[in-house]
Amino acid sequence: MALADAKEKVLLGEYMQILEDPEGDWTLDQVRDQFASRFRNSESSTLNFGFTRSTFWLRIAVDSTGVDGSWFLVERHPILDELTLYAPDGEGNYRALEVGDTRNFDQRPMKHRAFVFGLETDDPGVKEYYLKVRGKGALNMMPALYSAKGLVEFTYLEQLMQGLFYGSLVIMLVYNLLLYLSLRDNVHLHFVMFLGGIIFFNINVSGFGLQYLWPETPKINEYFWLSTYVITLALALYSRQFLQLAQRFPRYDRLIKHYLMMVGGAFVLQWLMEPPWTYHLSTVIALMTIVLFSWLGWMVWRQGFRVARLYVLAWSVFLLTIFLFAMGNLGLMPYSVFVPYLPHFGALWVVVMLSLALGDRIRFLETERKQLALEAQQNLERHLADIEQMNRDKSMFLQYISHELNTPINWIGAADSLGQDAQGDQDVDVWAMVRKGQRRLTGIVSTSLRYFDLSDRNQPPPVGNCQPMWVLDGILREQAGRIEQSGIAVRNRVSPNLRVNASEGELQEVLSIGLDNALRFSAEGGSVDISSEVDVPGGYAEIRIRDEGKGATAEQLEHILEPFFVMGSRHHEEGFGLSLAMARVMIEQVDGQLWAQSPGPGQGFTLHIRLPLSDMQAPRA
Predict the structure, then answer these.
(1) Which positions, given as ranges, span the membrane (predicted)?
(2) How confident is the model at residue 423 (pLDDT cuts 50, 70, 90)?
(3) 453-491 tens-digit pLDDT
(4) Is the dihedral of CA 216, 218, 221, 226 positive or negative?
(5) Which residues touch 398 (CB under 8 Å, ≥6 apart)?
(6) Are 168 and 125 in contact (CB under 8 A)?
(7) Which is nearest to 49 in space by CA: 74, 9, 21, 11?
(8) In sequence order, what DSSP letters do the residues of 263-320 get, joined into one string?
(9) In Å, how far from its chain's centre is CA 10?
(10) Residues 6+ positions from 224 with CB-CB distance below 8 Å
(11) Quick check: 111 and 144 in contact, CB under 8 A?
(12) Rounded to an integer, what distance in angstroms lies between the CA atom of residue 18 and that of residue 22?
């Protein structure tokens, strides 16, 4: 390599020759003499040997003829365990300069995070240099020659970029720590923990830790894998709270817990293993963690949790950068100049995206809080309306009960006054009136209890496949005597193919109530027509019970389904005003509807019962 033809920088990889020492016990003399013919030419500007137990020797011939100024040999990969430069001393011998991240920083000829060696360029001619490198981790090298000017420019530019990177991380760490102290939201504390792990990892693999923080304790460099477990734990805690897994996605929350148990086992195993297996294990854990949380964010986002979109964007890019970094370290892809900086780019991207995600989360939670507050207000208003309606029902019920109790009491008083003097048929009539009052009291109590039981039950009745035509047919057979005695024609025109989802017992009760009302308010010689209509696209069927009786006014129709409403005078009506109210409750509790129609007084009355179709309903119905 002729320095006179170079500019300020020369990449040495393609100019070097490589020799592998499998046992690692060859001396320089053996390499120069006995094994000199085994050197092979390099084919790349960067050297990637992957994880290996071998020692590698590199040979480079440098011609300093016609060179002015100083030149330096620089190895920019700062995490090589042991690196020794054998430089000629001008007297036919070689001096050894031993550096590496397992050796004290003070041993380096230049106080630089990279490995920098000054070359003898004052004496012209060709000089042969040897580099011996070995380590427990990945052996990746980017050797280069720099002039004094080139080295200064490279150092300044690198320090600027690294300063921006670490400054950004520290600013975000302090900012989130202050947010935690202000808001007491643990998600910010977990993010601070995550940032701490990212910073420790990067200052370790970049060489700044050995240069500035522990120059006399290089052993610390062997434990950079601890940051992997700190980051994994912090990320799991952060993700559980940020994505609200326990509340929204309990299945994924259980998955995270099981994964943390597995990581805990790997952490214990890590202390029992020797390099390079510890590096392999930590790399696998890092890749699994990033893949898992990238997938998790994607799944949560797909299920409608909008806050996860920035989370997914952050981890997708970070996954790519760490994957490429791991592939480069494992020797599965070319180790270019950009590979050592991939964790920096990925970490900075994640920090920015997750910080934005935290802000987005705050906005989302605020919107959700407002929505919940609005729903709570609407629920409160609805409950207040229900309470007011219950109060009105209670008042009506008390008035009704008061009236119903007074009437039989008056009858019983009249029976007592008449019973003192009257005999014969009068006695029979009096005691018949007493028995009628007793039956009415018993009826109002039992009917009221039935209505309130239906209204207060928490779950709807079990539903099944019902055929209304056959239910109605059974009712008509049971009441055949009453129908014949009333002189009213009842026609069952419900389709025999009709099938609906309902509780058969309660459907029978509702149809009996509708038929009873139609018979009670129809005149002799009239008719009651019961028909059905199916809306297959709508998924429901409608049963109509139509009579030609007394009908109802528009005002009466507004209240006819309310409890204790009776059309006409209570003194002369048989009912208690609860039958249609009970029917409405039973139908609505199986997702149906019930309402009444009438053209006006004396023009008949129609009761509509709408129920959902059964899955077995044939389209021809």
Answers:
(1) 164-183, 190-211, 223-243, 255-273, 279-298, 310-332, 338-359
(2) low
(3) 777 777 888 888 999 999 999 999 999 998 888 899 999
(4) negative
(5) none
(6) no
(7) 21
(8) HHHHHHHHHH--TTHHHHHHHHHHHHHHHHHHHHHHHHHHTT-TTHHHHHHHHHHHHH
(9) 52
(10) 200, 201, 204, 205
(11) no
(12) 13
Q: Which residue in the block uniquely carries the two structure tokens 């039973």? A: 586
In sequence order, what are the residues at sequence separation of 6 or more whose Cβ sits closer than 8 angstroms to the Cβ of residue 17?
A: 39, 40, 41, 42, 58, 59, 60
For residues 614 and 501, is the Cβ–Cβ distance under 8 A? Answer: yes
Q: Which residue has the higher pLDDT, 343 or 470?
A: 470
Mean pLDDT score, 320-348: 71
What is the rounded distance in angstroms from the CA atom of residue 547 to the CA atom of residue 526? 8
Reported as a single tens digit per residue, the pLDDT across 93-135 is 999 999 999 899 999 999 999 999 999 887 888 899 999 999 8
pLDDT digits (tens, 9 = 90+) for 259-294: 999 999 999 998 888 877 887 788 888 888 888 888
**Residue 565 φ/ψ, nearest 5 degrees:** -90, 125
Looking at residue 356, its amino acid is: L
| Residue 589 DSSP SS3 | coil
How far, in Å, CA of 446 to CA of 314, rounded? 67
Contact between 345 and 166 (Cβ < 8 Å):
no
Beta bridge partners of 211: none
DSSP conformational letter for 613 = B
Q: How far apart are CA 316 and CA 319, in angstroms?
A: 5
Residue with tokens 């300093």: 64
Enumerate the β-bridge partners of residue 40.
Answer: 18
Query: Is the model more confident about 222 or about 407?
Result: 222
Cis peptide before 276 (omega within 30 of 0): yes
For residue 70, what are its two tokens? 């100083």
Residue with tokens 């309660």: 506
Note the residue count of the chain.
Answer: 621
One-letter amino acid of 562: E
Q: Which two tokens stand for residue 473?
A: 């047919």
**Residue 130 is inside which H or E element, if any?**
strand 126-134
What is the SS3 assignment for 402?
helix
CA 102/CA 79 separation, integer angstroms? 9
End-to-end Cα separation, the chain, in angstroms: 95
Q: DSSP letter string over 32-46?
A: HTTTGGG-EE--SSS
CA distances from 537 to 184, 497, 542, 590 (A): 54, 17, 13, 19
93-99 contacts at long range (C-beta below 8 A, 24 or more positions apart)? 94/28, 94/130, 96/28
- Whether the CB-CB separation of 317 and 174 falls below 8 Å is answered with no
Global model pTM greater than 0.85: no
Average pLDDT over the chain, rounded to whole?
83
